[in-house]
């Protein structure tokens, strides 16, 4: 597949990605290389990457603990200490090998260390490939609140090698699929409904579907790099999705949800809200919701849960002047930002989600 040349960085695929990485290392004459991994990617992915890198400088590995609970400023502090103790300078390169948590943390750590060193993302999860590593957003959570601390700064290169997906459990694949479904809903109905019938899905089409999904995000992100307007469309399903994810992360009585699992619920809720607020076609709402439900387990929400989830909405990054702003659909491929939603409409959306089970 051809490399995507964006305004400030490249996205390279498969074998070409390693050629581009080695060209970058050679052309920039980096003083040292650091590779950030979590314990999972260190075990399953590091050997393969080691065999592909061509560099005459010292390479140090930095390992962090996996999991959303470690996506914190404390983890960044440990990364900064390790970089400093191992002589990293402004001409060092940080390569982030892992899922969305690793690329988010690594990008933020690199952007702040010595006021910014170069970094490369090598996402090893489907979610990382189609979403987290794309678009230049880097950051950490503030306690259980998602992505409250961060910076928008692009990597020098994003490398997409679908071979890493062979190391993933099914639930992690589904987590990434949620973002691909989102991209289809806001931009390309054909890509969305490519997943309608799992029995007809062809695995060999996955690389092209990943590339199509990446193109949706990069097109929007390049037109609005600092999320002043259009880029907010990428948050479809995320307003309530993030609130649900944060609530489950903080509650000792609830099972943790992967990002994509929470966003899948958020998208179904947003589809129903689109019917209520924008008169989105109810038949399309039902059809799209059933496609999403095909891939994700049903989560039960009590009235108490819903009340608590709504308290997290005030922290959503799209909010302004005290208003909670939603991204909804006028039609598939036609998102509308800054939509106001009533408490009663949110209750109806949760009732609709419950009815699908």
Automatic annotation (TrEMBL):
One GO MF term: 3-dehydroquinate synthase activity
Designated name of the protein: 3-dehydroquinate synthase
Xref: CDD domains: DHQS (cd08195)
Domain 3-dehydroquinate synthase N-terminal: start-end pairs: 62-174
Class of this enzyme: lyase
Gene3D superfamilies: 3.40.50.1970, Dehydroquinate synthase-like - alpha domain
Co-factor requirement: Co(2+); NAD(+)
Keyword annotations: Cobalt, Lyase, Metal-binding, NAD, Nucleotide-binding, Zinc
Gene from which the chain derives: aroB
Domain 3-dehydroquinate synthase C-terminal positions: 176-319
Enzyme Commission number: 4.2.3.4
Species assigned in the record: Psychroflexus longus
InterPro entries: Dehydroquinate_synthase, DHQ_synth_AroB, DHQ_synth_fam, DHQS/DOIS_N, DHQS_C
Function: Catalyzes the conversion of 3-deoxy-D-arabino-heptulosonate 7-phosphate (DAHP) to dehydroquinate (DHQ).
